[in-house]
Amino acid sequence: MALTGAWNAEFIDEQYRQWKSDPSKVSRDWQFFFQGFELASARESEVVLVCDEDQVSRQSQVEALTHRHRDLGHLLACLDPLAACPTDHPLLNPAAFNLTDDDLEREFYTQLFPGKNLVVL
Fold this sequence. Notes:
The chain contains 4 helices and 2 strands, in the order H-H-H-H-E-E. By secondary structure, it is mainly alpha-helical. The protein has a two-stranded antiparallel ribbon. Strand 1 and strand 2 form a beta hairpin.
């Protein structure tokens, strides 16, 4: 690929036309250049959605609930052996995160358990 003609549009167009008709008519450098050119202009395959907006929102809420339990889970700890143990706290209620009872049976992604990507709440 000669530097003197590298930026000359007419020269490049002529090299490209020759390459399209017969790749062996141009130097090996130009062959590689035009192969990359064709690759870059190739159409990409369609993107397939793995999940919808609702699933993403629910996953986000589950992660927020998980972090809330890490921060405030001690509020549900049974520390007084003479008193009844707390069973619910408004800050730790799944409803505070727009999660329903049906969501408690659904699988969500996690990074907490090695080797197991999906777990049920």
